[in-house]
Write a structure and sequence with these properties.
about 160 residues, mainly alpha
Length: about 160
């Protein structure tokens, strides 16, 4: 079983990781109409993609809390609470695009880089230590294929 310190660190890491995700969605919606590729459909697709991958992130917060003895509903509450930073970051991302359009490429790069960094720095080494390195690698490739299929299929 994980120690409370490690569980707290994981919860904080996933919560902080949700900030650039929300920022990416906000930037996507704030950029509508700024370029030919910045459409409502592309912003919607980004929001759907990030929303889909938020389910396992919420579980990544809830399951260790439940395993450590916290109640089911309280564990689920904290899993959901970890994602509450996304709408706030999304609002900030939308305002940033409207007010400071030149920041758009940097904001999107930051969001993508932060998401990749969290996965590579925290989750992959943890999976390798637990003997699930191959499974996590296959799941990451599968997730990438799903997201790319959604991107191509939905526009």
């Amino acid at each position: 079983m994980m120690s409370w310190r490690r569980i707290l660190l994981l919860c904080i890491a996933i919560t902080v990781h949700n900030i650039p995700e929300g920022l990416a969605v906000g930037v996507g919606f704030g950029a509508i109409g700024k370029t030919p590729s910045a459409t409502l459909e592309s912003a919607r697709n980004l929001a759907i993609g990030i929303g889909i991958q938020n389910f396992p992130e919420g579980l990544a917060v809830s399951l260790p809390l439940r395993a450590a003895g916290m109640g089911v509903w309280k564990s689920l509450w904290y899993g959901q609470l970890s994602g509450m930073v996304e709408p706030l970051a999304g609002l900030f991302g939308t305002i940033a695009v409207v007010v400071a359009e030149p920041l758009l490429p940097y904001a999107l790069s930051f969001a993508a880089g932060a998401m990749v960094y969290v996965v590579l720095d925290d989750l992959v080494p943890e999976a390798n230590q637990c003997g699930n390195g191959k499974l996590s690698s296959v799941a990451a490739v599968f997730g990438f294929i799903v997201m790319m299929s959604l991107d191509v299929g939905l526009g």
